[in-house]
Design a protein that fits this description.
heterodimer; A: 35% helix; B: mainly alpha; 0% strand
Chain lengths: 264, 301
């Protein structure tokens, strides 16, 4: 393992500098002596309002990294600083609570954030409007379609009013048409709010379609292989030729990374 | 990427493609249609008629067996004799008193069992040391027939209400606690993670995520706990019989036995069954169905 300094999590110098700073982070799992290195010396800064996708094949530790940023797990070395408080996290599964209605799921997040009871209902309605589910407040989770569930989950994540939104392959389980629509929704909501997004995916086109910056991770252990700035203006379409061209380039690199694992 | 400090430069510059309309169409296509109300007649036909037919059949067979004098009447009385026993208690005005004595004992014992079993189950489910220490004992206690506690309870508490309640508690608490443990164990880990990410930790996590997520298992435990309460109560009442104690159904049955009144004994058995099933049907089953249906866990028949 690379030697990394474990810094004290000092107070951020300037909170406007970054929405998240991942600084020389490594993570290994397993018992001492039989440890497996999953993430190796990762450093990524997410600027305020920036949309970054983490791209990688299986075993690149991208979900592990997201868990570390979310504070659900601790890095083995290095530091993670999220100045805006606890980041919001969205999963591949909607993870909505089935014992609550769509609206009450959002209200619970508002309550946990400390919002007064009198304001919660209105704010939950507003967030549902934002994801275009104005009439769904009283709907049970099982009454909603997959795409609607993910939109409620997005509204719940936004309800945390965090400046950083972490997304762990949130659209991977959706059909292509719905995914396409949700890409547009996410781009719209991101541009209407000041939220920063760190979005994990294994889908190259999705990464290019959404992000301002694509970070490619190699696998076993996960290391930063390369970064691309995506200069294509929003709104993009997944079928745009510019998106396709960059996707081809990134896919080539990704395949190269994967091939290395077959060479021993 | 310092230039993208706000969203203004990424605004939609193309002609507006009606995303809202597209999305509304998708939602309409993908949403499952709200379920139709099933008519009362069909519910009666599918839910009420079959058990009634079964009961009628059993009573008819019983009646035929009794009428054909396979055994003398004092060993095998017919349904009519048993009905007369119940009718007589009703006319004497004692029937409801017997039933009420048992139900009130059962309800109080059950309530106290819930109050003890719930925190106990939560502790076992969430604290590793406690689980390792008393988890196996708790499961083991469930397989111990609570009637086995009656002699010990009589020695400890004498022929008092305390004996009856002790036996009920020992029967019901383990099953309620175990139900909650099973409920907590079955919570998908994703809910707990989602709870933590929205900040529901500690007491808030237990109140807003853990307990509601465990509710179906907990309700199953409560249902079983009631069955155990009622069973234990009957065992205790049968054995702990003294004039100082009020006469519940168990004591009633024991009294009939001393007079070799078989139709009285059978009548009491039927009453015990009716109360046990009735409380389950009136209270626990609707509650359980409501919870499961609201979570989409019940397939509509």
């Amino acid at each position: 393992m690379a030697t990394t300094l474990v810094k004290q999590a000092a107070a951020p110098v300037d909170t406007a500098q970054y929405a998240a700073r991942i600084d020389h982070v490594s993570k290994s799992f397993g018992r001492p002596g039989a440890q497996q290195l999953v993430l190796d010396d990762i450093s990524i800064d997410v600027a305020p309002g920036e949309f970054v996708t983490l791209l990688g094949a299986s075993g690149c530790g991208k979900s592990t990294l997201l868990n570390l940023v979310a504070g659900l797990d601790r890095p083995s070395a290095g530091t993670i600083d999220v100045p805006g408080g606890r980041p919001a996290l969205m999963f591949q599964e909607h993870a909505l609570f089935p014992w609550l209605t769509a609206g009450k799921n959002i209200e619970l997040a508002l309550k946990m954030r400390g919002m007064a009871k009198s304001e919660r209902r209105g704010e939950a309605e507003r967030l549902l409007q934002l994801v275009r589910l104005g009439g769904a407040f009283g709907k049970r989770v099982h009454e909603l379609s997959g795409g609607m569930r993910q939109r409620v989950a997005l509204a719940r994540a936004l309800a945390q009013d965090s400046r950083l939104l972490l997304m762990d392959e949130p659209f991977a389980a959706l059909d292509a048409i719905t995914r396409d629509v949700l890409h547009e929704e996410l781009t719209r909501i991101w541009s209407e709010t000041s939220v920063s997004v760190l979005f994990v995916t294994h889908n190259v086109r999705e990464a290019v379609r959404l992000a301002e910056r694509v970070v490619l991770l190699s696998s076993r252990p996960g290391r930063i292989a390369r970064e691309w700035k995506v200069g294509i203006p929003q709104p993009r379409r997944i079928e745009d030729s510019a998106v396709a061209d960059l996707s081809v380039e990134i896919t080539e690199q990704l395949r190269g990374e994967i091939r290395r694992h077959g060479q021993h | 990427m310092a230039s993208t400090d706000t969203g203004t430069d990424t605004r939609d510059t193309r002609p507006r493609n009606d995303l809202a309309g597209l999305e509304a169409g998708l939602d309409a296509l993908e949403t499952t249609h709200s379920t139709e109300r099933v008519g009362l007649g069909r519910i009666l036909l599918s839910k009420v008629v079959p058990p009634l037919v079964a009961i009628t059949l059993v009573i008819t067979l019983w009646h035929l067996a009794a009428a054909s004098d396979l055994k003398p009447d004092y060993v095998l009385p017919g349904p009519v004799d048993v009905w007369h026993s119940i009718e007589q208690m009703w006319l004497e005005g004692t029937l409801l008193g017997y039933i009420w004595t048992s139900i009130s004992r059962g309800a109080l014992g059950f309530a106290v069992s819930v109050a003890i079993g719930t925190p106990l189950g939560l502790l076992v489910a969430r604290v590793k040391v406690v689980r390792a220490a008393i988890g196996p004992i708790l499961s083991g206690l469930q397989s111990l027939p609570s009637v086995a506690w009656v002699p010990a309870a009589i020695i400890w508490f004498g022929l008092t209400d305390a004996t009856i309640y002790a036996v009920v508690l020992l029967g019901a608490v383990p099953s309620i606690a175990n139900g909650l443990v099973a409920g907590v164990d079955q919570i998908p880990p994703l809910y707990l993670r989602a709870g933590r990410t929205i900040g529901a930790t500690g007491v808030n996590g237990i109140r807003h995520v853990l307990l509601p997520a465990a509710l179906p298992g907990y309700l199953a435990g409560l249902k079983q706990g009631w069955a155990f309460s009622w069973r234990s109560l009957m065992a205790a009442e049968l054995i702990a019989n003294s004039p100082d104690l009020g006469t519940g159904l168990g004591q009633l049955m024991e009294n009939f036995r001393t007079y070799s009144d078989m139709s009285g004994v059978l009548a009491t058995i039927i009453l015990i069954l009716i109360v046990g099933i009735g409380i389950d049907l009136l209270f626990f089953s609707p509650l359980e169905r409501r919870v499961l249906r609201s979570r989409g866990l019940l397939t509509k028949g």
